Amino acid sequence: MDHVKSSQNLTPFLLLCLIGFAAFFCSYLRIPVLPLFAAALGAGPAQVGVINGAFMLATGLLSIPAGLLADRTGRKLPIIAGLAAAAVSSLLVTQCRQPGEMAAAYVLFGAGLAAFAPGMLSLVADVMPAHRLGQAYGWYTTAIYIAMTLGPASGGYLAKSWGLRQVFFLSGGLLVAIALLALFVLPKGPPRHQTELHAALAGSLALLRDRRLVACLLATAGSCVSLADRCDRRYLVAAGLVCLAAALAALGQTVQLGPLLLCAVVMGVGMALTFTSIGALIAELVPALKRGLAMGMYNSCIYLGMMFGSTVLGLALKRVGYPLGFALAGSTALAALLLFLRMMRERPAGQTPRR
């Protein structure tokens, strides 16, 4: 019986991994093409930064309301709307004639990712049993990170072979196909909220009173599949942040290719441990009907943290140099770790995940 139930959960989960991989692969085809196409429109380095910043800001700010929408309307609508917005943004870029228009198109791209990511992260927890959440988030994270790696590499090759504008056409067309696939194969999530919007908002704000959830969000902003369900996830987050801090500190001291690659590997291990474990922790801490909002907060912390961190680190490197600048970045990860461990001490003994 358990084997049959596990197989029933596995099929929709594999579909989620497939859709997640395809969506991020097609979206990230445009990553290496962005600065080249923007430069062709007359953009300088600062304007390219503005375009990227517009994308991250839109994703960070809109992830929380998109997560709340996923709780009220069901997961499917925001996911499909997000894919459609990402597709339209890519097609709009092909019609841009100046950098400002491109920035506006990338705001739409950020809005699309903000709608897509929290719904998908929530569905992973919705379809998998509680005792396999760590494995589920490990495999899903692996799928999208591989897509984030292969997408830019493929986009760069296609840009050289076909042209810059054609990559955006391809990205948009494939995202339309993925949206249609999602429309027919996405599994159902939990029942929708039946309360009024103001009551749902009040109840959702209560999530921020859970210091353990806030600890997870702080650790995310400051930042094995099989181990994720066998070890205390707090320790895995701690190990991930330590790896990240060590890699960042060492990065500022490194000038040769070999050590740089080693730092990159350690940083990747740290990010994998941290984000996989935090995703599973949040899914455990939050009831299913508020899971979309919690995952929206998580996604918001990732993109606002990246935007803020890159801005501050850029200023720091200019003023204090690379060694001290990267050491300060590593210290930030350690500070996030200390806050995380302190706030997670409130976890009740024998707590069971809420479904």
Summarize this, please?
This protein has 355 residues and is an all-alpha fold. It has helices at residues 2-28, 33-40, 45-73, 76-93, 99-127, 133-162, 164-185, 197-205, 211-222, 233-251, 257-285, 291-320, 322-344. It has two domains: 1-186, MFS general substrate transporter like domains (Growth Hormone, Chain: A, Up-down Bundle), CATH 1.20.1250; 207-345, MFS general substrate transporter like domains (Growth Hormone, Chain: A), CATH 1.20.1250.
If you had to describe this structure to a student in words, what would you say it looks like?
- There is one protein chain.
- This protein is mostly helical.
- The protein has two domains: 1-186, Growth Hormone, Chain: A, CATH 1.20.1250; 207-345, MFS general substrate transporter like domains (Growth Hormone, Chain: A), CATH 1.20.1250.20.
- It is 80% helix and 0% strand.
- The chain has 13 helices and no strands.
- It starts with a helix and ends in an 11-residue tail after the last helix.
Task: Set down the secondary structure blueprint.
Blueprint lengths: L1 H27 L4 H8 L4 H29 L2 H18 L5 H29 L5 H30 L1 H22 L11 H9 L5 H12 L10 H19 L5 H29 L5 H30 L1 H23 L11
Helix pairs in contact: 1-5, 1-6, 1-7, 3-4, 3-5, 3-12, 4-5, 4-7, 5-12, 6-7, 6-11, 9-11, 9-12, 9-13, 10-11, 10-13, 12-13
CATH architecture of the largest domain: Up-down Bundle
Average pLDDT taken over every residue: 82
Q: What name does the CATH topology of the largest domain carry?
A: Growth Hormone, Chain: A
Q: What sequence of helices (H) and strands (E) makes up the elements?
A: HHHHHHHHHHHHH
Can you tell me the residue ranges where pLDDT is under 50 for at least 5 consecutive residues?
1-5, 224-229, 348-355
Q: Number of folding domains?
A: 2
Shape: globular
Report the portion of residues in β strands. under 5%
Number of strands: 0
Taking the sheet with the most strands, its summary is: none
SS-based class: mainly alpha
CATH superfamily of the largest domain: MFS general substrate transporter like domains
What is the number of helices?
A: 13
> In angstroms, what is the radius of gyration?
20 Å
- Kindly report how far apart the N and C termini lie: 20 Å
Q: What proportion of the residues is helical, as a percent range?
A: over 70%
CATH class of the largest domain: Mainly Alpha
